[in-house]
Every structure is written in C-alpha cells, then in structure tokens.
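Consider a protein example.
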Amino acid sequence: MHMRLPLRCLTLCLAFISSLPICLQAQSFTTAGTAPMIERYGKPYVEVMIAGKGPFRFIVDTGTGADAFISPELADQLDLLSAGDAILDDPSHQGARRVPMVLVPSIELAGHTFFWVKAVRHAVSGEAGSCQGLLGFTLFRDYLLTLDFPRRQVMLASGSLTPDGEHNVLPFEVPEGVPITTLHVDDQPFRAQLDSGGSGLTLPETLAALQRWDVVPTPFATGITMTTRFEIKAAKLSGNVRIGRYTFDHPVVEIHPAFPLVNFGSPPMQNFAITFDQRNRLVRINAASQRLTLTVPPSPTRLTYQPAPNTTATRSNLVPVG
C-alpha cells in the first residue's frame, strides 16, 4: 500500500515570538488529556511511549501528511514489523523516494493510546539534535488536537469546533493530509499550509515577486529537497499578513523557490493556541493580541528530513510530507 507524504527537507527559522499567556474561549469539547510541549527552537516536541516503552522524543508536525515517522534505530530497538512501503515526495514535486513502513503496536500521548499505527521508517533530525520520531497530522483525525504554544501544552480532546465567521475559527482543506487554510498578504487571499514543523512564514517565489518590501529579499541560506538545491531569501514586507482577525505588521518572511504555497510555520504559531478539528475541517486560533510581530532571530535554525535522491521512484501513488 502506498501513501502520499509531502516532505519538508530543509527550512530555516526566521523568527521566535515570545507570547503572553492567553485565555481559551469556551468550546464544545471535553479535554481528554494534556502533555507538556517540549518546545525546542520553536518546534513542538513531546514525549511518547511506544508499545509501553520509553519515553521517546517525537515532534508533532501538522505539515506531514502521514500518521507517524519513526527512526530506523528505534524501529530496530523495538523490533517493529514491516508494513509495506511508501513513496516520499517533496513540495517541489521534482523527485521521490521509496521508503519502508513499519507497524507500531501503540503510541501513548496525552492520556490516549493510538493502536496499530503505520509509520514511515525514516530518520528525523532537528535543531536540538536527532529526535526519535514524528507524529503527523492524520494521526489525530478522530480528535481535537490543540498545540498551545504560549502555555507549552499539547492537548487531545473529543468534541467539535463551531464556525464564528472566520474571526478565530477558520475552515481548512486537507488535500494530501496537510491542513491548508486561507490567509491574506496585503489584503489578497492565498492558500497556506498550517505547518507546526515549518521554520517561518514562507512565501513562494511567484507570490514574493508581487510584493513591496521594507527590506528587499536577501540571500539567507541554501535549501535542499530530495533532488534539488535552491537559494532561500529573507525579506521584510512593506505590507501586512492577516490570518483570521490577527495581523502580522510588516513581518519578516522567507522566500522559497521550491515551495508552491505559503507556509505558516512554528515561528508565527508561537503566538497562538491552535486547535484542529479534522472531522469538521475547522481550525481555531487564539492569541493574546490582534497585532503581532515576526522578526529574524540572532541565528537561523533548521529542520532536515533529507533522504538520498532516488530517480527510479515512479510518480504514481506518492505519499505527501510537508
């Protein structure tokens, strides 16, 4: 069986926003459990138990359209059974790689156990050193997943969100297992991935070419996908970026020629408690202020899931990883 996973290979963090605690609005759900968010360089890490063993450090990545990734070392340590394979594809859609999958008997997080999870056997490395796995967006399909960045908590609950005219609660699509909503750049609507593993507020090159700048695009780093290398630029917008009722004033953004959509990554997420309702395709965002900033940190960070190129993989039945 094949899945399609959008693969993020290398991005650079442009900002870390410190946020004040916020008050969550009442919602129609019951909290099932919470777990500490071990925030590292803006990314949401958690500790999980695998088949009753652990704890092991995993990253919660809403930009990955798979249930889970697990490192080859941990898969071997736990003697996990094979579960076929998948084909990874990156956002540039210029290449793919076939990778094995394994069957994980159970994953425990926030008072809940996910049984018999198919996981991609693949190394996951991050700014704080290699972690042992990744929890993708689709793992939480039957629950409300809340990433509360200001309070450093991950919550799982049952229930549902209610539309509010797109002030705090926004609709989203899940075309390849990754949530995509609408945000506005200088009052123009654009589709954007909500990507807790992403490293900034990223604009595709085609969109960046239409913008006005306070600080013009400047080469920042080199990005690497599975088959391509490309130059990443950083710039400060002359305009604003709005999501729901929240506005980033003249934010610093990344410009990626390989990525086709806007990417709303973990640095802008630092301001929010974000709740995903996959059943109703709704996401709620709450922050302490409606006017927000996004700036460049003293030193960039990175997140890499980079396999070696494999030009023999076919284009059919690909698996997205964002």
